[in-house]
Structures are given as C-alpha cells and as structure tokens.
Amino acid sequence: MNTFKKTARRLAPLMLSVGLAFAAPATGFAKDLLTVNLVNEPATLDPHQQWNPDSYYVYRNIFDNMLTRDNAGEIEPQIATSWEQISDTEVVFDLRDDVVFHDGEKLTADDVVYTIERITNPDFASPQLGQFNKIIKAEALDDTKVKLTTDGPYPALLAQLVKLSIVPQHVASTMSSEEFNAAPVGSGPYKFVKWDRGVEVVVEMNDAYWGKKGPFETVSFKGVPDASTRMANLQAGTADLVVTLNADLADQLEASGRGVVKNVNTERVAYFAMNSTKAPLDNIELRRAIGYAIDREGIVEGLLGGYPKVVDQMLSPAHFGWKEGLTGFTYDPEKAKEIVAGLGDSAKAELELATSPVFDQRVVQAIQQMLTDVGLNASIEIVDMATWLKDQQTTNDQAPMLTFSRWSCACQDPDGIMYPLLHSSSNWSRFSDPVMDEKLDAARSELDLEKRADLYAEINMLALEKVAILPLYQAAIIYGASEQLEWQPTSNESMFLNRMAWSE
User: Fold this and answer.
1) Between the CA of residue 455 and those of 48, 322, 436, 461, what are the distances in Å?
2) Half-sphere exposure of 179 (CA within 13 A, CB side)
3) Eight-class DSSP state of 300
4) What is the bridge-based pairing of β-strands 75-77 and 31-38?
C-alpha cells in the first residue's frame, strides 16, 4: 500500500474525532454585529467562480466544504467525515447525515455529485476548473456515501477538496451562475441576507448549523479600497476587523493603542508574470533582464516592513514540496541594463503592467521604476478587481504583457499554484513549454510523496531556467482588529467567523 493510502486511512478516524470535537455548539453570543472592512466588495458569491480573497472571505462562511483545515493547517472532516482510497484512482467518502441547507432541505450525496459535476463542467467555465478537472466521475453510492474517480492517481485530491464548497442541487441547477451569485444558498454557519452593491454584504448566524455556531448574530462585509480609511474605521469603532494593512499602518496601529495587529505569513506567493507567448517577451533574454532588474529584498525590507519572506520558487514554506536551497535571480541592475542595450529596438516596446487597487500599489510602482531604470518602457494599467480578473483569465493574445499578482489556492499543495500558472492548458498561464507540461502532469499524478516533491523541485528549477515566471516573496497579510476580537489568522487566509470569539 502506498504512502497516500496509508495516510488517508490512518488519519481518517483521528480527523473525524477532531472534527466532531470542533463542532461542539457555542455557549452564547457576545456581539450582535461584526463589521469587516475588505479591500473591495466580493467579485462573486458563487463559490465555483472566483476565489479571490474578498470573495472567499465572505462565501467561505455561507458554504460548507467537502473537507477543511484546522488552524494549524491539517486536513480534517467537514461534510465528509471519513474517507478510504480503495484504488489508485478511487476514493470513497462518508458524509454527515445531519446537514441542512439554509432553505431547510437536507444535504445528501446527490448534492456533492452535482457540485463536482458543476465545477468540472467545461461549459460552466469555472476559473477553478484546473483544480478539480482530475476528477472524472462522482457517484452517489447512497445518501451519505460518494465515490470519486480521478483520471490517474491524484495525490492533491484531499487538499483540493478543502476548498470545494457544496451547493444545493435543487437551487443551483435551476439558476444561472449570475442568479445564484445574487441569492446564494449554502449550509454554512452564516446565511446570506443581502448584497447592496457598492455598500455591503450582510450575513446572519445560521441557527440550524450542525457545527460550531458563530459568535455574532449578523456580519457586515464592506469594501473599503483605501487602507488608511480601513484603519481609521477600526480606530473609530465603525469596523471590528480590517484586512490588508501595510507595515507603516501596522506600526501606527500598534503605537495608537486603539486596536491590535494580527498577521500571518500565508501560502500566497507574490509573483511577476510575463506574457512569454508574445513579442517582445517571447525573447528569454528580455525576461532575464527583468529578473535581474527587480530588487526583491528592497521591496520586502524597504516597502513591506520585512513581514514577507523572499522566495525563489513558486511555493511558500506553507506548501508541501517546499525545497530549501533553490536560488533565483539576484538583483543586478547593471547586468539588466547590459542585456536591454543588446536587444536594441525590441526592448523599447511599451509593456503594460496590469494591476488593481487590491494590490499594494507601492510595490507595483517600485517594480515599474526598476524596469524603467534599466531601460525598459513599462507603464501601469490599473483597473477594478473584477476587470483585472477577467483580463487575466483569457487567451494569451488578449492577456496583459506584465502582471504583478499574489496567488493562493487555499489548498497548500503545489498543484494548486503551479499547475494553473505554468501549464499551457490553463487560462491563467502565460507560458507554454511541453517539458513543463509533462512534468506538471507527472507531479499531479505521483503518489510517492518523496518522488512528488522531487518533481516539483525540478519544475521550479525549469521555471527559473526558462524564466517562465518570477517568484517574488511569500506574502504576509496584516489585519487590524478590535482588542475584543479573539481570532488567529491562518496561512490559507480563511476567515472562519465561527472560529472567532468576542470578549468584553
């Protein structure tokens, strides 16, 4: 029996007991309304569409997932209570029998099957398709048992199911994604109440929740693009939790004594993508020049207060497969200038750098200046997050030339970050190489954990050699919170409301 099978069978009973203990009911409610300031309002509340942070923060509380992770990052039961790998390509899951959706209908194996068929249907065009398309069949064996069959061995299956939100077939199958987005129905600890576009999304505590209930009767999520305004709201008491502060604001918050800083190094990797399928970026020498031009240490220490960690691979230490010792580009602007000068007119083409207000514009502007300093012609194109996401998930000929972004799959598995960003079949990828595709396909099918880790090391070394993408740093996220809010941020950035508490 291989390592994956042994691990799945050995951990299932323990995970079940942990999950049941975690589901103990709350004793009461300490606060009627919690107000959360996001950067933007959600792009969607359909969990099978975008999973950008501002969307995920909200809908993660409306829906239950097949599996989840505890605060330490270990996989544990949620809708599935236990599982057994019966062959290299088949896993049977036992499901909870006491879960009801917010409209009172019971959650069954048919809903799980429908969920998987929905998100893997190419016509549905989920941006998450690449995370789940190894699943080729879902079968309901009875009301509380489902068998999943994968296209070959798939060791990342459990990690991916951590973010598979179960939707009700009787609701979602009668609606378009846009209609479901406007009135989402899940089985999670909070129920959707309303979405006033441009103002707030409101959810309320689910009295019928099977697990641990949230400590707040109502939660309001508001998009507040300006970080200084988010912090001012926290200090004025009009917000209880705010996301994405920078290091300077964190220092100010700590010095003020009105609120506390909560931060965590996440699985999110900040990276710089170059559309290598189009001239002039199809020239590897130009991409090397960009690699030498970007001062990652300067960005981390000078702009980000030393919170993030510079990385040379498209993984963070929070991922399986992280390998010490890989070395990427050193900051060498003179080398970059020499390369650019040797490229002649091809290096003078305007290169648009796509960004959105959700990203730290100091970093974007610093990178633009670094590219300008070595002789490149980079301009910033800033759009709202919904437009940015649409522009990224497109064909190579339509995609931006340059992109600063930060990627998290919320799964802590390399398949969730490297496959979508580097495999030529992905609409997120701006790189095409048959050797890379072959290695990525092999890695997502290798059940031997040691061999799989070695494959990802090879993939990262190939990405460096081909300058397929430029990893920058492991992102740290800095939250500001009321002193009364008890909550521990996690590496996968899941804002679980029912894992919070409030103390007067």
Assistant:
1) 29, 11, 11, 10
2) 6
3) I
4) unpaired
* Distance from chain centroid for Cα 391: 18
Question: Is residue 272 within 8 Å of 376, Cβ to Cβ?
Answer: no
Instruction: Report the distance separating Cα 229 and Cα 242, nearest Å.
Output: 10
Torsion sign across C-alpha atoms 258, 264, 265, 268: negative
Question: What angle (nearest 5°) sits at the alpha carbon of residue 27, between those of residues 22 and 28?
Answer: 125
CA–CA dist 306, 222 (Å, integer): 28
Average pLDDT along the chain, 504 residues, taken 10 residues at a time: 37 36 43 95 92 90 96 93 96 98 98 97 89 94 98 93 96 95 97 96 97 96 96 96 93 93 92 97 98 98 93 93 93 98 94 91 96 97 90 93 90 91 95 97 92 96 98 95 94 92 91
Give the separation between CA 289 and CA 337, rounded to whole angstroms. 7
* CA atoms within a 13 Å half-sphere pointing along the CA-CB vector of 427: 14
> Are the C-beta atoms of 300 and 476 separated by less than 8 Å?
no
375: left (phi over 0), alpha (psi -120 to 50) or beta: left
Give the separation between CA 100 and CA 106, rounded to whole angstroms.
4
Q: Please list, in sequence order, all residues whose beta carbon lies within 8 angstroms of the beta carbon of residue 142, skipping any fewer than 6 positions away.
A: 109
Q: CA-CA distance, 13 to 33, in Å (whole number)?
A: 37
- Return residue ranges of the chain for CATH 3.10.105.10: 265-476
- The answer to whether the beta carbons of residues 358 and 40 sit under 8 Å apart is yes
Residues carrying CATH 3.90.76.10, the chain: 3-24+41-194
Are 217 and 32 in contact by the 8 Å Cβ rule? The answer is yes
DSSP string, 279-291: TTTTSHHHHHHHH
CATH 3.10.105.10 assigned to 265-476: yes
Does residue 108 contact residue 140 with C-beta atoms inside 8 Å?
Answer: yes
Residues in the chain: 504
Query: What is the Cα–Cα distance from 192 to 262, expressed in whole angstroms?
Result: 27
CA distances from 386 to 75, 183, 357, 358, 364 (A): 31, 19, 11, 11, 18
Instruction: Quote the CA–CA distance of 240 and 479 in Å, as a whole number.
Output: 11
| Range 3-24+41-194 classified under CATH 3.30.1360.10 | no
Q: Yes or no: say if 361 and 383 are a contact pair by the CB < 8 Å rule.
A: no
- What's the pTM? 0.77
